[in-house]
Design goal:
The protein is mainly α and 521 residues long. The chain has helices at 11-30, 32-42, 47-75, 77-96, 101-129, 132-163, 167-171, 174-187, 201-220, 227-250, 258-261, 264-293, 299-305, 307-327, 329-346, 356-384, 390-430, 433-438, 441-449, 451-460, 465-501, 505-517. The chain has 22 helices and no strands.
């Protein structure tokens, strides 16, 4: 009997369909933050409502992905992918044409659920149809182009905001979703493997509660005025995760097999993947605000400034496949994380009067690091799970992005907020008594709250506008430096985990061979 070919017939068309499908989710995930100031003004939305818009897509995606991955394993990955792409179109329409912020938040939540159906299923289908080195190359392209789409989306959204209303930013993925849907119908085989075992529905419900509460808590805990809500959500997440773990130890067919999750090639790749993809969002979170608040870029210019990151991620990701074959996952992953660290350190070189060169260089180096590290982080997880549990593996690769983004943005956001306020307090303490007497407690509170608050005060008091904005830029730069330092510490921690706990190449190959033959796990 002849060996199974590494690639299916029409492999290029199939992979194009799956990458395009994943790009719909990646772009939708990245567009909201660019639009929030305009939405707040046009819809007269409260900050809490804007926060729900910001977190809505991530919430729907992260909360549903484990459960829907198991459902896809049982009832079919092809119909789940078709359903997710089809649902993403009305969800985008609902968000883009929303008459108020509540409808917009619902549209984003539904869009996230649609992504939870489609996004992890694309990787499961790659695992079904490709094998060997062809699978590694496919995952490399899936990772690099997907991350590149996330970095590209803010530039497109920024342009659309300059020429039209905020709604266009949410509508922009509809043509891509329609093309992806057509390609999937034409190219992707229907008869993909299914798991005959029943779905752990109770575990699925508990996973929705636990991951949803964790996502909300991580987001709100760093938002000024929302600490109590964030802590309540995190407490609910701890309870939910405890119940979920209890259920998984007792379920006959657990949704998230803890024995598989304990495999070093799974959990180390999961942890380091959170660092890798969290660092992508962290770099965008700090970088996009810095170039606008401190360097004076427009929204569109800020989006364009990150294009080197998208380009290098896409260009370098195929190289990661070659590195894995030659060096193994441990060294490839570590090399990528070390490169990310170098790029993040370059953020310290940015200044108010800097040219674009240090901005583009930092983004490019970070993109190279993510392009190298993202592929082994995703591939190793998929190599650790049996074919029938591909949904569990692909769901974990998705959670890498969602939880990495939520954790890094929450931590950096909290540090940035605290240090920004500390810098403002230091500046206020240094002014002359005569000036200090004119600053009311309310004015000082607005100055401490955010750079946006300083901009509002500068408009209200044009006589002092330049001085207010100068102080705000200095404070934002100070807070950003602390945020970058924390990001570097997290990246170093990820590097240590990869070097210490991930198996060396020979041991990795031995374990993967065992996992291939351990399909009953």
């Amino acid at each position: 009997m002849s060996a199974r070919p590494e690639s299916p017939p029409r492999a290029g068309l199939i992979l194009t369909a799956l990458i395009a499908s994943a790009a719909v989710a990646n772009m939708n995930l990245a567009v909201a933050n660019v639009t929030l100031p305009t939405i707040g003004r046009d819809l007269e939305a409260s900050q809490t409502a804007l926060n729900l818009v910001a977190v809505g897509f991530t919430l729907g995606l992260a909360a549903s992905v484990l459960y829907l991955g198991a459902v896809a394993d049982r009832y079919g990955r092809y119909p789940m992918l078709i359903g997710g792409l089809a649902l993403s179109i009305p969800a985008a329409l609902l968000a883009g044409l929303a008459p108020d912020v509540e409808v917009l938040a619902i549209g984003r939540l539904v869009g996230g659920i649609a992504a939870g159906m489609a996004f992890p299923t694309t990787l499961s289908i790659i695992a079904d149809l490709f094998s060997g080195s062809a699978k590694t190359r496919a995952i490399a392209l899936w990772t690099g182009i997907g991350c590149g789409a996330s970095a590209l989306a803010p530039a497109i959204a920024g342009y659309l905001l300059e020429v039209g209303s905020w709604g266009w930013a949410f509508l922009m993925t509809i043509p891509l979703a329609a093309v992806a849907l057509l390609l999937v119908v034409i190219a992707v085989p229907r008869g993909l493997p299914r798991d005959a075992r029943p779905v752990d529905h109770l575990g699925g419900i508990l996973s929705v509660i636990a991951v949803g509460a964790l996502t909300l808590g991580l987001h709100f805990v760093s938002v000024p005025g929302e600490l109590a809500a964030g802590l309540i959500a995190l407490a609910l997440a701890v309870i939910g995760l405890g119940l979920f773990g209890w259920r998984q130890r007792r379920a006959p067919n657990p949704l998230f097999d803890l024995a598989i999750a304990a495999r070093p090639t799974f959990w180390v790749a999961g942890v380091t993947g959170i660092v890798v993809f969290g660092s992508l969002i962290g770099a965008m979170f700090i970088g996009q605000q810095y170039v606008q608040n401190v360097m004076g870029y427009s929204t569109f210019e800020a989006g364009l400034s990150a294009l080197p990151m998208a380009a290098t991620m896409i260009l370098v990701s195929p190289v990661a496949a070659l590195m894995i074959a030659r060096l193994g996952t441990r060294m490839t992953l570590s090399t990528g994380i070390l490169t990310m660290l170098a790029g993040t350190l370059l953020l310290f070189t940015w200044r108010e009067d800097s040219s674009y060169l240090p901005v583009g260089l930092a983004y490019a180096v970070i993109g190279i690091g993510i392009g190298i590290a993202g592929t082994p982080a995703s591939r190793s997880i998929m190599a650790s799970v049996p074919d029938r549990r591909a949904g569990m593996g692909s769901a974990m690769t998705d959670l890498q992005r969602d939880l990495g983004a939520a954790i890094m943005q929450s931590v950096i956001g909290a540090v940035l907020t605290v240090q920004y306020a500390a810098s403002v307090d230091s500046q206020l303490a240094g002014v002359s008594p005569a000036v200090r007497d004119r600053i009311t407690d309310q004015t000082a509170a607005v100055l401490r709250q955010s750079f946006g608050g300083a901009q509002v005060l500068a408009e209200q008091y044009p006589k002092y506008g330049d001085a207010i904005l100068k102080g705000a830029r200095e404070a934002f730069g100070f807070g950003s430096a602390w945020g970058i330092a924390v990001a570097c510490v997290v990246i170093v921690a990820g590097l240590v985990v990869a070097l210490v706990f991930f198996p060396r190449k020979a041991r990795e190959l031995e374990l993967e061979e065992r996992y291939v033959h351990d399909q009953g796990a």
